[in-house]
Specification:
Low-confidence stretches: none
CATH topology: Rossmann fold
Structural class: alpha/beta
Helix content: 25-40%
Mean pLDDT: 94
Number of domains: 1
Shape: globular
Number of helices: 2
Order of helices and strands: EHEHEE
CATH superfamily: Response regulator
Amino acid sequence: MTRVVLALDAPEVLEELLHFLDRSGAAQVVATVSDAKQVEDALRHLEPDLVLAEPRLAPCVPADIPCIAVASR
């Protein structure tokens, strides 16, 4: 199962992604974060396989961790 961190500040997008990933059965959301410090902490402690991040937080994700930027607009 793919371990995912959601780095999003938009509650409506976060909720939709949580529901989608939960239904997929292929991914487990291990954390939801909304600022750069939380991103760094989650990556250090949880070692996710993937980060789904809004564009302003995507640069906080190191190059060795796959990251998909998700814009809510």
